[in-house]
Amino acid sequence: MNIRTLMADEIECRVQTVKENGCSILLYKDARCDMRILDETFGIMGWQRKHELINNNLFCTISVWDEEKQMWINKQDVGVESYTEKEKGQASDSFKRACFNLGIGRELYTAPFIWIKLNSNDINKYNNKISVKTKFHVSEIAYNDKREIVALEIKDDKGNVRYKLGQRTVTETTDEEPNKKLDKAKVDAIRELARVKNVAEEYICNFRNVSSFEELEQDDWKATMEWLKKR
C-alpha cells in the first residue's frame, strides 16, 4: 500500500492570517484529490467510505482492502462544520481527515511557516477589514525519503514567484520600502520566545534564509513572533 506524495497541482493554498504587509498561507488538499489517489492506489473497487453520527458528531470511516491479510483496514476521523454548508462541510472534512489517517497528504504537516509579503495590489479594504484578492498556488514541491517537504515554490495568479522554501520573494510591483534590520530588543525577544516554545533558532533561520535572528527583517520578525505565540 504505497501511497504517493501529492503533486504541486494537487495542493491548494489558503490564506490563514492577513495583515496589510503580508499573509500566512496553509497548504491543503481537497476531497477530489483524496478520491483520485484512493482510486489509483487501491482501485475503484478496493476502497469504500461511510459516515455515521457519534455523540452528535459526523465521523467518516475509510476502508481499504488488504489483499495479503484478506480483510478491510479501517481509518476513521471526525469532521467540523464549514461556514457555508454545514452538513456537506462536515462530511467532506471528516473524509479528508480520515484520508490523512490513511497517509494521503500527510506530508503537508511538514510544510514550513509560509509568509508572503503583500503590496497594495494584493489586498482589498472594506470597513477597516482587509482581505487578499490575489490567488496563490503551489508551482513546485519536492520531498526527501522521509516524505518531508524540502523544496517549495508558490506563485500568484499572474505567474510571479511569491515564496520559495528558505527565502521570501517579492514581486517588482511592491510599493513598499525595504525593511530595516532588527534592533537588539527585538532580537532578544524572539530568541527568548523561541526558547520558551522549544523551537530551535536554526530551524527558524533556515526557513527565513538567514544565518541568525540578527539578520531578520521587520516583517519576518513580526510573522515569526505571531507563529511562535500560537504554538
Concise structural overview:
This is Rad52/22 family double-strand break repair protein. It contains 5 helices and 12 strands. The protein has helices spanning 31-42, 86-102, 184-196, 201-208, 218-230, and strands at residues 12-19, 22-28, 47-54, 57-66, 71-78, 114-117, 123-126, 129-132, 136-143, 149-156, 161-164, 167-168.
Question: What does this entry look like structurally?
Answer:
By secondary structure, the chain is of the alpha+beta class. It is 27% helix and 32% strand. The protein has three domains: 92 residues, no CATH class; 68 residues; 55 residues, no CATH class. A hairpin with a 2-residue loop joins β11 and β12. α3 runs parallel beside α5. About 5% of the residues have low confidence.
State the share of residues found in helices, binned by percent. 25-40%
Q: What would you call the structural class?
A: alpha+beta
Q: Which strand order spans the largest sheet, edge to edge or round the barrel? A: 9-10-11-12
Overall mean pLDDT stands at 86
Unreliable parts = 167-178
The total tally of domains equals 3
- Tell me the β content: 25-35%
Protein name: Rad52/22 family double-strand break repair protein
Organism: Alkaliphilus flagellatus
